[in-house]
Design a protein that fits this description.
CATH architecture of the domain at 53-143: Sandwich
Largest sheet: 6 strands, mixed
CATH superfamily of the domain at 53-143: SoxY domain
CATH class of the domain at 53-143: Mainly Beta
Distance between the termini: 52 Å
Helix content: 10-25%
Shape: extended
Order of helices and strands: HHHHEEEEEEEEE
Structural class: alpha+beta
CATH topology of the domain at 53-143: Immunoglobulin-like
Number of strands: 9
Amino acid sequence: MKISRRNFLEKSFYVGLLSAVGIPSILSAEWPTAAFDETEYEPALKGLIGDQELLEGHVMIDAPEIAENGATVPVKVSSDLENVEWISIMGDKNPRPWISRFYFHGKSKPFVSTRIKLRESSNVVAIVKSDGKLYSSKSAVKVTAGGCV
């Protein structure tokens, strides 16, 4: 397919216009800035969940008891809940405790497998939002060589 310079410029203009005006507002997700900017666990948790109560159960964390390298700690989080909106992971002794958030849509299986950084031995905390309620679980990980500065 051969495209003329005029057609290319015209299509580029419309793509640029859509990306500047429409698409970011459609794709932008809720971003908890208060949690991201905090350097202590409790304020970061409050910034992430507000005043909502954390319920226990329904969240499973698979993390090593001992991590030789804090820069690459494998963590798996899953849940048996329906209608999961997101899963967040926190490290309670990290310089920035909130590590990540993964969004789910519709009937997606609530499962995340990732690698995180931990500065020192601490708890890995997983928070799951499902049907407007928050559930959490934590797992202690002993780090022999830190990963965060």
